[in-house]
Each structure stands twice: as structure tokens, then as C-alpha cells.
Amino acid sequence: MFKNIDISKVFKGGKEKELKKVFLFGLLATLTLLPVFGCGKAYKNGEVYVYNWGEYIDPDVIEMFEKDTQIKVIYDEYETNEMMYPKVEAGAVMYDVVCPSDYMIKKMIDNDMLAEINWDNIPNSKNIGAQYYETSKEFDPENKYSVPYCWGTVGILYNKSMVDEPITKWAQLWDPKYKNQILMQNSVRDAFMVALKLNGFSMNTTNIDELQIAKQSLLEQKPLVQAYVVDQVRDKMIGNEAAIGVIYSGEAIYTQRENEDLVYVIPEEGTNVWIDSWVILKNAKNKENAEKFIDYMCKPEIALMNFDFITYSTPNDAARELIEDEDIRNSEIAFPDLTQYDNLETFIYLGEDGDELYNSLWKEVKSE
What we know:
By secondary structure, this protein is an alpha/beta fold. Strands 1, 2, 3, 4, 5, 6, 7, 8 and 9 form a nine-stranded mixed β-sheet that branches. Strand 1, helix 3 and strand 2 form a beta-alpha-beta unit. The radius of gyration is 24 Å and the shape is globular. The N terminus is likely disordered.
């Protein structure tokens, strides 16, 4: 607003020094009052710093939260767990609330980065289905640190107008006839999950022989891959830029709304069932506001708004009951009966040695 003002050019004459004082005093007073009058907004109950996945919340929800609680939300986004972790660990920005995935939550617990949640301050957490808390015990054994936000599967999205057969297996992503038509996830754990399941191994293995086999499979597939992507898989598939992509189930729901030729399947060899959950950092400056934010996200009508916006499955049973579209409420993509599938797993944290092993092998895949 006052960029590049040269006071010596504004005031001329013998009283320049005194006028400078008056001007600077007035400028300071004006800047102090900006949050109250027009150029900003005052929030009497402080602020909360939130770090979340890209496009993973309805923007209207943030505005509603601010209005209803008088708490200002400072909001940043990330693309992957691996991009989020070092930034949070470094503490360059003092975030309060983060939304990591299952295995990353366990890593943050093990490294003493998370604060225990005061459940008395999150009464709306009762709307989360018991089965999701049970699944959460794989990475948060005593349900002390995390509140489920979204869940889903990883599967194959294919364009039925661009393939000559139903796609039902990970193995079909190695078929040479689909060269330059395949999109793979640019994520170490997701990429290795595909290759490990392809070969009949657990996606949580640390067996070096099994991982070398998976690495070799990824190297063999690499000449067939059009691109390694994260969020871009959605737009590429909608735009018919690729025939087959590895995608999260929530993204698949959105793509099918935009392109009726797209089909989502859980591969026969098995896959990942994941949960992303809200956590509060141990060094959070605004812990009470963080709990208010999480509690707000657990309101049925708010959870429904977020589900409608991001299309990722909600673990909020009360919100699911509010879904008016019966096809969506009973969707096999959004809310699959997991008992009908074999070899489903949730990622677990493999320790620093496991991280280093996977990362080194992934670097070899990407560099060769």
C-alpha cells in the first residue's frame, strides 16, 4: 500500500524534519489500524496454522470456521507425505494441525512430534465410525494422536474407450501395448506397493530380495510409463491424455463425474487401504484452537461439505447418512465392502532404515 514512498520528495521546505515525524507517526497509526478497518479482519480468538494436502478441504468450510469461531486459519498445502515431513520437522513454519497418512503418523509418533489429543475438546469425534478408529490402531495403537479425516483405496483408473479389454490387474500396467499410455504415482511407497503386490509380496516388506525384485519390475515398466505424477493423474485421465493410471479412489470418483468413459478397479493382486488423519504437533502454539478446528471438521454437515468437494471417502458415519444421492451413498468406489477383496493392507512405518532403503531404491528407479 505504501511501497516505494520517498518522504524527502513528499515534503519540501524548512520543516521537512518535523513533517517527517508527523508523517511517520500517522503512517504507523494507520498500519496499526488496518486489521480493524477494511484492509484486513480482526479475529478475537487468535489463529490456527493448518498444513494439508492440496485441494483437500472445501474453501467455504474454512470461511465458515473463521466466522463461527472467530479463529483465523493460516493454511498451506503439500503434495506428498515425504514433502510435508521435513518442513514440519524443521519447524520453519510453526504449524498446529497437519493431515498425514497412516504410516507417516506412526513415524511422527515415534519421533515424538505429536501432542496427545484432549478428546473432551473434540466431542464431534463420536461421528467417526468405530471401524476407522480400529484401523487407526495399526499406526496409532492407543488412538491418542489422530482423528480420521479421509480414507480410501489405491487402484487403477482406465479409459474403456482407449483399451481393448477390462483392466483388472496390476500386471496389465506392464503390457507393452499400453506404452506411453500409463501413469504411475510419483511416490516411493505407492510405486513400490504396486510392484510388490504385482510380485505377491507385502507392501510393508523390508526384505531386500523382495524389494530388489520390485525395483527390477519398476525398471522394466519404466519405458512404458508416460509420466510419474501425483495430482496430475486426475486431469490427464479426464482429458484422455492417458489410458491407464494409478489413482486414489477419491480422485476416481471425481474423474468419473467429468468423463463417463473412466472406470475404477481394485486390482486382483491386492492394494493399499489408507487413512489420512488430523494430528496436532507437539510444539503447536495454538493447541486449543487446533482441537476446535478438528472438532469442526467432525461435524456431520461439515464432513459432508468436504466429501462433496474433494470426493474422498469420509469416515464420518453421520455425514454419510446425509448424502442425498443414493448411488454415491452406496458407491462401491467411495464405500467399498473391503471384506470382498483379498490382500488389502495399510502402510506401516518401517523405521529410519526402512525409509532409507525404499528411498535409495526409488532413486535408482528414477535415475536409470
